[in-house]
Amino acid sequence: MAALNEGLRTFQADLNRDDLARKRVEIAIVTFDDRVQILQDFVTADGFEAPTLEPGGMTYMGAAIHAALDALEARKRQYRANGVAYYRPWVFLITDGAPSDEPGTVEKAALRIRAAEDAKSLAFFAVGVEDADMGKLREIAVRDPLKLRGLQFRELFLWLSASMQRVSQSRTDEQVPLPSPAGWGEV
């Protein structure tokens, strides 16, 4: 957890070095263990304070995906209601375990992800850490999940920050090539 928390602090600091990303990138954090919690509602990078996460027991991954997708849809409705153009949002799932949800919860979450990816209304990324169930992540995600090399959270969050900075400097409808995750992740 210490490496993950340091990675989040690195992400906060690196995003805030870029004037445009600081205003355009929004971050929300949903945690899941024995319960699902929206720990950080959507806030621009300049208002983001990296939380200190604590380990928990269960892994209510499916319920967390549903909560994240619901929060994201609510945010997009706010943008549309106010005539604000937005970038294709990213959902980034990081886990070190296997789901412990009620039967069918993860499968329904996977269907929502696939439908949203097919509609190009979001991009979903899954990252497995240590003993994560990579087979289950493959069932959930459209694109291949990545396995974190060791505890290279800092490198992962630097990659995420660099990717977000690239996207924030593009037009909302523009395809942006992302840097390779080769320094921190493997398929």
Please provide a written account of the structure.
This protein is α/β, with parallel strands linked by helices. A 4-stranded mixed β-sheet has the order 3-4-5-6, with helices on one face. It has a two-stranded antiparallel sheet with strand order 1-2. The protein has a single domain (2-186), classed as Rossmann fold, CATH 3.40.50.410. Strand 1 and strand 2 form a beta hairpin. The longest helix is centred in the middle third of the chain and has 21 residues, at 61-81. Helices cover 42% and strands 18% of the residues.
In short:
The chain has 6 helices and 6 strands; from the N terminus they run ααββαβαβαβαβ. It has 187 residues and is of the alpha/beta class.
What keywords describe this structure?
187 residues, alpha/beta, Rossmann fold, two-stranded antiparallel sheet, 6 helices, 42% helix, globular
- CATH topology value: Rossmann fold
Q: How would you spell out the order of helices and strands?
A: HHEEHEHEHEHE
Number of domains: 1
Shape: globular
Give the number of helices.
6
In angstroms, what separates the terminal alpha carbons? 22 Å
CATH class bucket: Alpha Beta
The low-confidence runs, each spanning 5 or more residues with pLDDT under 50, are: none
Question: What is the residue-averaged pLDDT?
Answer: 95
Radius of gyration using CA atoms only: 16 Å
Query: CATH superfamily assignment?
Result: von Willebrand factor, type A domain
Major sheet size, sense and barrel closure:
4 strands, mixed
